[in-house]
Amino acid sequence: MKALVKKFPKEGLWLEEVEIPVIGEKDVLVKMKKTAICGTDVHIYNWDKWSQETIPVPMTIGHEFVGEVVEVGSLVRNFKVGDLVSGEGHIVCGVCRNCLAGKRYLCKDTIGIGVNRTGIFAEYASIPETNVWMCDKSISEDALCILDPLGNAVHTALSFDLAGEDVLITGAGPIGIMAAAVAKHVGARHVVITDINDYRLKLAKELGPIITVNTKKEKLADVMKALGMTEGFDVGLEMSGNGDALNEMINNMVHGGKIAMLGIQAPDTQIDWNKIVFSGLFIKGIYGREMFETWYKMTAMLQSGLDISKVITHKMHYTKFEEGFQIMKSGQSGKVILEWD
Ligand code: NAD
Ligand code: ZN
After folding, report:
1. For site (Important for catalytic activity for the proton relay mechanism but does not participate directly in the coordination of zinc atom), what residue positions does UniProt give (predicted)?
2. Cα–Cα distance between 117 and 60 in angstroms, integer?
3. Which of 244, 264, 312 for a ligand 1 pocket mutation test, highest count of atoms within 8 Å of Cβ?
């Protein structure tokens, strides 16, 4: 079968002929329909410091997918040939304190599909049954193939009650944009999203009545004033991974406001800790998706009218993956989908 492999420890990705995986008794073999490129895949493509320290070479990468079950292991109970599935990319240990408490997203020994073990940018992939998600066939396959990043958005956005609240999202990448749509869907009042990239802010506007701010050109304070907001945002969702954006958020929260942080900050990011103290802010870190509460909630929201289809800006056959990665790198895209049918 064909697979996109990190074959050499240098920039790039290679389309290779590899063996179809042999599944274990608790695994499901999935024939890929669609996969999506994540920022993580771009890091691996670029072979940055993190990738060099993390990714075993050679390895097939990728973790966002929708496909069809074509074989199940002898102990698999909940899936059968023909099921439409996606999957949770974090494989957990099952025996640590949090796993035993049912809080699998807090596992101390998480392994990432397409990061620490073979990924899904391939015609077929073997996934443990514990990580397979049964898809509702009435939801579009495009949406189903981005459940993983939508799950990041949903996990972060639903960390705090948003109904009737004013929400600030920093970073209008695909996840920030989807979080904005989720915040609107669950009844937030003003949803303001910041970025420094006009393409992305324009894309955010296509997902609903979302207020966009290019912080290189406009002051957040002026936008808040125009909206009649006098005390600050109730909830902040940090989705840029940028220190300036994080500080801007901290500076514009209501006293007692709540911040959920998904964006991965540089190790030397500085913040004024006393703003957290004197404003009585709450800060929560977010990793991955809640297994599987987030998956239930996002499915329910897609079934009840949440529309994130416009965040997908490019679709192409997997053989055109080079083009897909270059588009992702340009910043002039939302989600980029590789098709395997
Ligand atoms: P992305 O890189 O596509 O989007 C980040 C956006 O932030 C970009 O559009 C960028 O222009 C914008 N930005 C940069 N500087 C800014 C500033 N000063 N103010 C406002 N915006 C600014 O990333 P994504 O795929 O949408 O993911 C969002 C973030 O979440 C990334 O940092 C990613 O690494 C992180 N992430 C974390 C997890 C987790 O489990 N914690 C999972 C997935 C992604
Ligand atoms: Zn664990």
Report:
1. 148
2. 8
3. 264
**Catalytic (active-site) positions:** 40, 43
How is residue 235 written in tokens? 């909830």
Using pLDDT thresholds of 50, 70 and 90, give the confidence band for residue 124. very high
Q: What is the pTM of this model?
A: 0.98
Distance (Å) from CA 98 to ligand 2 centroid:
6
Provide the pLDDT confidence category of residue 65 given band limits of 50, 70 and 90.
Answer: very high
pLDDT of residue 70: 98
CA nearest neighbour of 56 among 15, 113, 96, 16: 113
Q: State the Cα–Cα distance between residues 265 and 234, nearest whole angstrom.
A: 22
Quickly list H helices, the chain. 39-46, 49-54, 97-100, 141-144, 147-157, 174-185, 198-205, 220-226, 243-251, 273-279, 293-303, 321-330
Q: Which of 239, 261, 335 to mutate to test the pocket of ligand 1 (most atoms within 8 A of CB)?
A: 239
User: Which ligand lies nearest to the CA atom of residue 198 in the structure?
Assistant: 1
Span 268-291, mean pLDDT? 98
Kind plus residue range of the DSSP H or E element containing 28: strand 27-36
Residue 31 C-alpha to ligand 1 middle, in angstroms?
30
Q: Is 96 annotated as a binding residue?
A: yes
State residue 304's pLDDT score. 98
Q: What is the mean pLDDT of the chain?
A: 98
Strand bridging mode 167-170 / 191-195: parallel
Average pLDDT over residues 214-229: 97
| CA within 13 Å, CB half, 244 | 8
Q: Which atom of ligand 1 is nearest to the CA of 261?
A: 41
Ligand 1 proximity of 212 Cβ (cutoff 6 Å): no
Q: Exposed, middle or buried by CB within 10 Å (0-12, 13-18, 19+), for 24?
A: middle
Interface predicted TM-score (ipTM): 0.99
Ligand 1 atom closest to residue 40's alpha carbon, by position in its atom list? 34
pLDDT tens for 304-326 read: 999 999 999 999 999 999 999 99
